[in-house]
């Protein structure tokens, strides 16, 4: 009875298929767990098979060692990341696994695996196109007309963000209450696409991931430019749901669950992009200035 | 619009999360690579006193994002354990819910090996 009340979006499907986590963040995640004896029994989880997690610096970047073994991606490549901070965070993820390994808690590892393996085999242009495509169905641009309180809330919360994006990138975005959505001028698409092109391939994987999670490219740009915090972006993305929760009450095992999961993924994606985009030269200068 | 709060609060939050992460392993959190890296990063950027220092803001934003990540993963796992981690009930338990018991057949059901 309760299940029919849940909107069966992405998270809803996951509620039914949990806890099979996969290690790559591709949208079409694999088929449901191959038939255990019962219809739904938690599949056997891998136990933690290592004591120590350490970081080593190789030629290509930083690698993670589980005891004496090198960590590898699902595509059997050696796991190498360009940024030390990212390596530390990934090592912390692996180290925080207690008796069993839970892949669904290791978002940064998943993102790195996706960047290394590129399982969907998309190039930079395809990733950019995938992200900019969300502009046509951007959450921020879809407004309701009733209930009036929700329409007002959307204007109050989403208008400032849309205006910020329009000012920052000198584009027009607008909003719409029709089912067809806003009409985005081609120039806006071009400007945003060329802005995204300045990011590296790794960063773009992260950006596309965040856009898919938040269902909004405007909110993602707000995160990338540090205009919004993760909590704010998630709230804005789930504005209607939060409105309904305030009105009708919160169901902990669904609403809180989804909110925390969305926050985790968005935070991981944002951190991933920032860590992949920063350059070490900036850090060195600051260290010298303070030293 | 970035309501980041104060760096001190973010720092304390991060320490707390690291403590939680390492509580189970029993290793002191000060030994972890994450702690050492964070100390180095916060110290390096603390010296500039300008409030508008962009690098400081960038670091603080990264730290706050990482804190959000750790917190939400912990909350998510806790919720999952509590509400979705138990799997399905066995046939005996399901029968017991409505006050029934499965029949005992000492000789087996005939078609079982």
From TrEMBL, chain A:
Residues 17-42 are annotated as: Disordered. Residues 23-32 have a biased composition (Polar residues). Its main location: mitochondrion. It is found in: Mitochondrion inner membrane. One of its GO terms (biological process) is mitochondrial proton-transporting ATP synthase complex assembly. It is a peripheral membrane protein. GO terms for cellular component: mitochondrial inner membrane. Keywords: Chaperone, Membrane, Mitochondrion, Mitochondrion inner membrane, Transit peptide. InterPro entries: ATP12_ATP_synth-F1-assembly, ATP12_ATP_synth-F1-assembly_N, ATP12_ortho_dom_sf. Interacts with ATP5F1B; involved in the assembly of the F1 component of the mitochondrial ATP synthase (ATPase). Interacts with FMC1. PANTHER family: ATP SYNTHASE MITOCHONDRIAL F1 COMPLEX ASSEMBLY FACTOR 2, ATP SYNTHASE MITOCHONDRIAL F1 COMPLEX ASSEMBLY FACTOR 2/ATP12 PROTEIN, MITOCHONDRIAL PRECURSOR. Belongs to the ATP12 family. Plays a role in the assembly of the F1 component of the mitochondrial ATP synthase (ATPase). This is ATP synthase mitochondrial F1 complex assembly factor 2. The gene is ATPAF2.
From TrEMBL, chain B:
InterPro entries: FMC1_homologue. It comes from the Eukaryota. Residues 90-113 are annotated as: Disordered. GO terms for cellular component: mitochondrion. CDD domains: Complex1_LYR_FMC1 (cd20271). Belongs to the FMC1 family. Plays a role in the assembly/stability of the mitochondrial membrane ATP synthase (F(1)F(0) ATP synthase or Complex V). This is Protein FMC1 homolog. It comes from Camelus ferus.
